[in-house]
Amino acid sequence: MKSQNQKNKILIAYYSKTGSTRTVAEYIHQTAGGELFEIKPAKSYPNEYRATTEIARQEKETNARPGLVSNISNIAQYDVVFLGYPNWWSTMPMFVFTFLETHDLTGKTIIPFCTNGGGGAGHSFTDIQRLCPGSTILDGLAVRGGSAKSSQNDINAWLHRIGVTR
């Protein structure tokens, strides 16, 4: 991270199926600033929870790389990338893998955050380190999806702990 005299250009890229991850992304945005970018899979997932989890399981088992609706054409302008997603089968949705592999994040600071139903971050933070060896990965945050709306104080404390302030 740059010194206090220099400003980091921040991107908050996230996917949110139910709105919980979006809530966390917006809280981060309120505190840290930056630009929000919603990661959208090219193919929508069903509204029904069990059907979505079955597709997510199949994608993980086959190591799929589903397409995205759009990419960030100017990723080079960002110094810091917050990466948010729900924990699906102990990691990120597979199209978030696509996002990481599609963008050159070498030299950038990546700060992961995820929402979950009780599984924490699973091994997603380790997966990000594996996929982005040329990036600095800061300590991530896992938020229970059901408590996302009341998590702003925890998010602010986490941002302060990792040195992200506006």
- How far from one another are the termini? 12 Å
**What is the number of E strands?**
6
- Count up the helices: 5
Class by helix and strand content?
Answer: alpha/beta
Tell me the series of helices and strands, N- to C-terminal. EHEHEHEHEEH
Identify the CATH homologous superfamily: Flavodoxin domain
What does this structure look like?
With 166 residues, this protein is of the alpha/beta class. The chain has one domain: Flavodoxin domain (Rossmann fold, 3-Layer(aba) Sandwich). Helices cover 32% and strands 18% of the residues. The protein contains five helices and six strands; from the N terminus they run E-H-E-H-E-H-E-H-E-E-H. Strands 1, 2, 3, 4, 5 and 6 form a six-stranded parallel beta sheet that branches. Strand 1, helix 1 and strand 2 (35-38) form a beta-alpha-beta unit. Helix 1 (20-32) crosses helix 5 (152-161). The longest helix is centred in the first third of the chain and has 13 residues, at 20-32. The radius of gyration is 15 Å and the shape is globular. The two termini are 12 Å apart. The mean pLDDT is 94.
